[in-house]
Amino acid sequence: MLPADWIVGQIVLVALWLVRSLGPDRASNLGAAVTPVIGRLLKQNRIGYDNLKAAFPEKSEEELRAILRGVWENLGRTACEYACMDALWDYDDARPNEGRIETHDVPLYERLRDDGKPAIFFAAHLANWEIPAVAAAAHGLDMTALFRMPNNRFVARAIQKIRGRTMGKMVPSGGAGVLQLVRELERNAHIGMLVDQHLHRGVDVTFFGRTVKANPTAAKLAREFDCPVHGARAIRLANNRFRLEATEALDLPRDAEGRIDVQGAMQMMTSVVEGWVREHPEQWLWLHRRWR
User: Fold this and answer.
1) Looking at the UniProt record for this protein, which Gene Ontology cellular component terms does it annotate, in alphabetical order (predicted)?
2) What is the DSSP secondary-structure string of 29-85?
């Protein structure tokens, strides 16, 4: 009898192949059409609505439902775009406004690439949240990104193969992954991670007026190496295009000894993420239990 993990893995592989055969535009549009229909039947739909209602008490139910539909559309697009990630990134310095990607931050990436110093990037589950890592690798940064490994090892292998074509090095979250990030910073490379998920052993920060737990890894590493921390995000535009934005180094708060304050640094990163989410609430992943 074949193991269930293998069967699921093969189904995912076939699905990825079929979606990839559509090309990035049709694949993205397919995800946007199908996912809201399925999503409204899932318990995550209620979680998303409750989260939105608490975050935006001034909005009407009609407005909240419209945002929630956009959340499902964005998730569907992102999921299908995985299969076409290498075709999705088409930025060309010689034709900066003609492809799917637009950005004004190439000088920042080039400066970080050439300065011989370590740096940390933080991002959030916004738009297609894989694109900042793709951008860093495409612009020559020696980048290693932290990610959550899927539980199914066959699915994980397929996702890793896709990511490996476009995103540089990836390490799974957990103790071993963090140690690898330390090694990367020790050799003056760059690392990236998402900072908008719940961690029950995390530090308290305020997000949309309520206390949440934030993973302090980015701040702890910044404190240890006293290195710059930059935010990076993708914004989903019309016609399956994206704008990539990266911040200059944040002026992180420091303690009486002059070292980066971990809680204060995570609050600053979280506040940046909140600002991003407020700009495009339909592009953030409201479907998980961020507030507990």
Assistant:
1) plasma membrane
2) HHHHHHHHHHHTTSHHHHHHHHHHHHH-TTS-HHHHHHHHHHHHHHHHHHHHHHTTH
